[in-house]
Amino acid sequence: MLTAYDYSMAKILDTAGVDVLLVGDSASNVIAGHETTLPITLDQMIYHASSVIRAVSRALVVVDLPFGSYQGNSSEALRSAIRIMKESGAHSVKIEGGIEIKESILRILSAGVPVMGHLGLTPQSIYKFGTYTVRAREEAEAKKLIEDARLLEDCGCFAIVLEKIPAELAKTVAEELTIPVIGIGAGPFVDGQVLVTHDMLGITKEFKPRFLRRYAELDNIITNAVEEYIKDVKSVDFPGQDEYY
Ligand code: KIV
Ligand code: NA
């Protein structure tokens, strides 16, 4: 699983064979440049999701319910999920949290909308946590996470994401559950992995958590290409004879 926010990138990722494309609210950071995921709106998520959907012929598309679109009550959560499904054509939604949002999850599922859960580091709660460090290192939080994971499966979620928790805890959860457990910074003992595409491609260079593996250094590649373009335009090397009419 990888994130996607726009048509062109989604087309490349889908063609490459990624099973699940997540239209993450991380668009708030990597696309809009906000410091947190909190500012992105439901309308903006729908815009990203509809762009991704137009590119996809194979992958399952999951769309994050953004901060403020589901916490109020379960009918608001359902309304938000329905807007995403109807206006973008997406296949499913993802929501952060456990027992606190049980009613919302059940209500969305009862409308026939598949729901992916998200536990551990849930970035929409960053102002409660205070930092982006590893979650559930202490017993009480680990115990609640296992209970929440069981609850999400019992509610009918089709999969869950575990973000930035100890690998041993993620292993316990993956063994407990039958639905797929997809990790980010949660170690190898899970069923799948997810990364933010712009991070794994080396576009967002400042972001360097331990769990991130960079599969390309697109920042350098783009910089070199653009520098070359500037040079060629200034020297009128571009456009060349076979590049104009
Ligand atoms: O928004 C996002 O990119 C996510 C993944 C990190 C799981 O929720
Ligand atoms: Na997210």
Automatic annotation (TrEMBL):
Gene Ontology biological-process entries: methylation; pantothenate biosynthetic process
Localization per Swiss-Prot or TrEMBL: Cytoplasm
EC number: 2.1.2.11
Pathways involved: Cofactor biosynthesis; (R)-pantothenate biosynthesis; (R)-pantoate from 3-methyl-2-oxobutanoate: step 1/2
Any one GO molecular-function label of the UniProt entry: methyltransferase activity
Gene3D superfamilies, per database record: Phosphoenolpyruvate-binding domains (3.20.20.60)
Catalytic activity field: (6R)-5,10-methylene-5,6,7,8-tetrahydrofolate + 3-methyl-2-oxobutanoate + H2O = 2-dehydropantoate + (6S)-5,6,7,8-tetrahydrofolate
Cofactor binding description: Binds 1 Mg(2+) ion per subunit.
Annotated Gene Ontology cellular component terms: cytoplasm
Active site per the UniProt annotation: E163 (proton acceptor)
Keywords: Cytoplasm, Magnesium, Metal-binding, Methyltransferase, Pantothenate biosynthesis, Transferase
The name this protein goes by in its record: 3-methyl-2-oxobutanoate hydroxymethyltransferase
Gene from which the chain derives: panB
